[in-house]
Every structure is written in structure tokens, then in C-alpha cells.
Amino acid sequence: MNLCSFNVKIYRRIVIFALSSFFFFSLFSPAFAGSNKAPDAKRAEVPLKLLYTNDIHSCLNGFTVSLASGATEEVGGIARIAAFAKKAREENGNTLLVSAGDSFQGTLFFNFFKGAAEFKTAAAAGYAVMCPGNHEFDEGASRLITLLKFQPFDFVNCNLEFDAALYPCAGCKIKPYAVKKIGGVKIAFIGAITKNLANVVDKKHMRGITVLDPLESIKRIMPEVEKNADMVILLSHMGYEADLEIAPKLDGVDIIIGGHSHTKLDGPVILQGAGGKPVAVCQAFEKGEFVGELNIAFDPAAKSVKLCGAKLNRMDKSIPKDAAVQQIVDKYAEKIAAEVMTEIGEAVKTLVGERDLVRSVETNLGDFLADILLQHSKADMAVVNGGSIRASIPKGVIKTADCINTFPFNQCMAILKIKGANIKKAFEYVAAQSFPQTATYWSNGRKNPAQFKTIVHPDGTFEEILMSQDGVFNKAGKFGGFLQVSRGMRVEYENGRLKNLLLNGQPLEDDKIYTLATSEFTSGGGDGLSSFCASEESVLGPNMTALFVEAVKALRIIDVDTENRIK
Questions:
Q1: CA separation (Å) from 165 to 137, 156, 160, 173, 209?
Q2: pTM exceeding the 0.85 threshold for the entire prediction
């Protein structure tokens, strides 16, 4: 892959990873922000346009954001994406729209229709290829495969194996790769998902599914892919750091369209692949607020790929909504409104459920939800993983819909009998995953450099991220297993370690059996909290979202503050 003649900044840094090192080349071009330089006609280059989204999370009707002025604005929505893609196709017939996964989960569209609304509108918007994210398995693989039977787009993944006895149609609907021919150019799309899928999907939904190593799975099919394609694109639902890690090890992949980490990359990050040619890593934030755009010139004679422009297009009010697609959305929305727009309470202040906060600090909503589990279970303590909380509830009227949007997973409460030692292990894991340790610097350099990875962002800034023992890079606000805790618990973290864990002012005793309420997901070792699997006993209770709704109805006025439970 070549770059058009841009004024390109080049950052060349050695990246330390595990106990080995490799050279990491990043090219960030200001021209990527908006240039659409035409290909050289003398070489008969074929102009191609690739549009991409990731992590839309069922935001089919868009969502509201706050502006610096204090005003609000509606952005996103599948109808805007459809209209934008339609116009792009009219301007360049060699245009494809693709998704890097997690179309499901996050609004009532998923809670009510279990993926049908998301896939029907994606088909209407003209998506050509999609890959699964972890949330595509929130209702199980059988539901996903059933939905795919009726979709026109290709659905690709190369590193999942499905038990043929349990999922006889999986191989027919989920292919390792798909080839789309456009403008005479054959483009192969390979799909890959995080190798940690079993940690972020309910245990019961992983039955009969084996997660293979993504890199080895891609290498295994590359000879066949390259025979059938002129150009290769990886749709990755592995996360930005994982994409940065895998790109230099890939030979034959031109572009990675990523998802899972909800990263906003205004322009591609260019790395050197294993075969010596560049690999462009892209991602378009979340919820459909942006549609990523790559303008590509393909030279049929040289079989070369050239990036001629890249940008993120914001789906704001300047983008009209496609009427036909919006009509589909409205029909689904009408069915939801009839059932869930009932007012059930009032929030005296905002109940904070923002992603980066509930995954890194105590919030009043986290406290409230943990206390609901504590009250209903009569357990000694209760914990709620931050990743299960998906939105804040603003000050004012609370509707049933707000509770479902905020706490959407169809999870039962689980009540465990578990030793104090295993509870402490869970919090020690949270500490290691959530809070990077402070780097120790000597006058002549960094101590223990192999523990850190340097990330170069598109704006040229550098960031150092601690590598955990399992090779996963985490930062505060990223780990979905961060635990919100119930009244009576006190947790203190320091420099990536658990400093104190108290219950009613006393340290937990290692051999004492406690009762602990949490979600079915967390009790099964979700988010890597495997020590919860060592419980002496586990009993399932009521649906947790239903408990949330009933608690709001019962209290009517919700006025909660944080209580310094987590430091």
C-alpha cells in the first residue's frame, strides 16, 4: 500500500512488548483529515471508497450529546448513516459500507427485538459486510444464526469454531471471509474477534463455541484469500491495542477496520506489516456518531493499494435522514413506546453511568444498583460490574425505558457462598486490570521497560500503558469488570494493587464463607473474574433489570450520593 503525496509526519519509535521488541512505524497525515485527491488517470487506477462503522450498540434512532455551549444536539442514527452512504454511492459507484461489530445491545431496540431491528435496518442501509462483536452473542449464537438467515450482507469471522451438532447452520451463515468485487477489484474481508470473548460473554452463551487465536487463524486462511482477492481488509472486533499488536505480524492485509475499544481515530494509523508493506489501522468511535471514510486508488497493473484520503464524517443534523430507513426505525419505536414510556420515578440529580466513570470510580448509580442487589438478596455484600451499566439517567423524570437502557442485560442475580480469600482475589484482579502502575524512571531511562507499551496517537502524542500478565493492555475506564460495591464495603486501591477491602469496618477473613450477590455473568467468571467461579454454592435470583425498575417505582424519589466506598 502506498500513500498519496501528502505532507506526512513520521514517528518512528521502538515499542516494547512482552520480552521482545519490534519496530513500529506510524504515519499520521494532516491531509487524511479531508483530502480526496483523484487517482492518476494515466495509470488507470480504480477509485474506491470504503465507509465503516463500529460499536453502534443499537442506537438506531441516534442519541443526544451535550455541546460546550450547554446546548444539546442529536447525532447518529441508522437513517443518517443510510443517507450518507447512499449519497457516497451516487458520487462513486465503487463504494462499500462495512461494520466491525457490536451492532447489538445498548438501547430498547435490542431489549425488545433481540437483534432483528439492528439487522433489518443495517440491510436497508446497504451494509455489504459485517463481522460479529461480543454483543452479537448476548442472546446466544442460535439467535444470531437465525437472524442471519434473512440478511443480504456477508457476515465474517475466522477465529470462532461452532459445534456442528449445536449450530448446524453456523458454517453457512458465518464465513471466515467474503470477497466483494467492485469496480473490477476483488476485495476480501476477513473477520476476527477478541481472543478474550469468553470473558465478556455470558458463560451459557459460549457453549459449543471455541475461540481460536486470531493471528494464527488469519495466517491459516491467507493463502486462499490472496488467491481470490486483489486487496485484503480485516474487520477486527479485538480493540485498538490488539489491532496495533497484530498489524506488524500480518502479511498480506492492507487495512484493519477495528472495533470493541470505541476508539476515535480521526485518521488511520499506519504500521509496517510483516511483509514490509504498510497496514492502515482505522476505527470510528461509537454509537454511529461517525462514519469512517477511506478513499483508495487501486492500480490493477501493479496490484497496489494507495490511500488518497481519510476522515471521520459526523452524523449530525447536516446529514439528512433516509426516509425509508427511518420509517423502519419508527415502526419498531412505536411498538416500544406503547410499553415502556411510563413514568415511574424522579431523579433528584443525575445518576451517573458514563462508561469511563463506572469502569474506574465509584458512582451514585453504581452504589444504588449494588444496594438493590444487597437488599433483595439479604447477602453480606453485593457487587455490580461497571460494564453492565450502559448510560446515565439525567436529573428529572425516570421512565421504565431509562432503567432498561441503563441496565439492559437480561441477567439474573446470582447469590454466592464464597470464601473471603476468593473475594479478595477478584478485587486484586480488578486493581491490576483497572489501574496501571506508576512507571519508575531512573536518570538514564525507564526501569522495567518490558512492562510497558508505547502507543502513538494520530495527533502525535505518546501514551504509556502497563501490560498485564495475560498480555492485555488496560487503562482506567476501560475494564468492564471494575466492581461497584454495596453499602458497608470499603475498597482502596493503590498503584495497581488492592490496598484494603473491608466489610462493615473489618477486613475479610480468608477462610470465612460470605454471601455475595452479583450478576449471573460475573458469578460465572465474566470479565476474567474467575475467582468467583470458586464459590461453594451459587443460586440464581430474579432478573436484575426488573429489580431496578421495581426499586425506582417503590422509592419514587431517587436521591443518592456516593459514599466514599471506593478509593
A1: 18, 20, 15, 15, 11
A2: no
